[in-house]
Every structure is written in structure tokens, then in C-alpha cells.
Design a protein that fits this description.
mainly beta; 7-stranded mixed beta sheet; 11 strands; globular
């Protein structure tokens, strides 16, 4: 069984940086596609960035300057590096895995709050 555990969220001041982690168990991340989504209250879940099993990264145009997705194969962990954070970035951030067979798994989410 696949489990995804996000961590690294918290309260950050505007202009600050934060790195979110998504630790996977029950699967090897390099064999799957991984994505980071976020959802603010009253809004739809929004794709932030995606990494294919081949290591190709795709970041949404809105976030490509400040957000970067990465993977540490040794730790079987996916990361989302967020820089120059703004209050508008406040949301619950989720990691999502899709297996080669098409199975989708979500983490529980981690809260990111950007406020002075």
C-alpha cells in the first residue's frame, strides 16, 4: 500500500521561503509521477508543479518563477521549494502520486500560512 506524508508547512512571513516534503512509502517515487497541488478556502485545487517518473519537471506558469519541484531518490521524498512567498500562497498543500497503472494517491496535506 502506498502512503504519502507531507511535512514542512507552517507560518511564514511574506518574502520568506519554505520547503515542503512528501515522504513516500510502499512505492518508489522514481517509478511514479508526482505532483504538488494547493487549495485555498473556497477555491478549487490548483496544480502547482509536476514531475514525471523520468525526472521531467513541469511548473505552472503562474508559479514557475518562485516554486520548484524536486525529488531525492535516496530518501524517496518529493520536495516543493517555495521562495518569495506571498499571502496569496496561503493554502493547504497536497502531494499526489499516480502510478504507472493509473492509481492515484493523495497525502493528507500540510497547511502553509503566509502572514506578517
Amino acid at each position: 500500500q502506498v502512503q504519502l506524508v507531507e511535512s514542512g508547512g507552517g507560518l511564514v512571513q511574506p518574502g520568506g521561503s519554505l520547503r515542503l516534503s512528501c515522504a513516500a512509502s510502499g512505492t518508489i517515487l522514481s517509478q511514479n509521477g508526482m505532483a504538488w497541488y494547493r487549495q485555498a478556502p473556497g477555491k478549487e485545487r490548483e496544480l502547482v508543479a509536476y514531475m514525471t517518473k523520468f525526472g521531467i519537471t513541469v511548473t505552472a506558469d503562474q508559479h514557475k518563477v518562485r516554486f520548484t519541484i524536486a525529488r531525492d531518490n535516496a530518501k524517496n521524498t518529493e520536495y516543493l521549494q517555495m521562495n518569495t512567498l506571498k499571502p496569496e500562497d496561503t493554502a493547504v498543500y497536497y502531494c499526489r502520486l499516480i502510478s504507472p497503472e493509473g492509481y492515484v494517491y493523495w497525502g493528507q496535506g500540510t497547511q502553509v500560512t503566509v502572514s506578517s
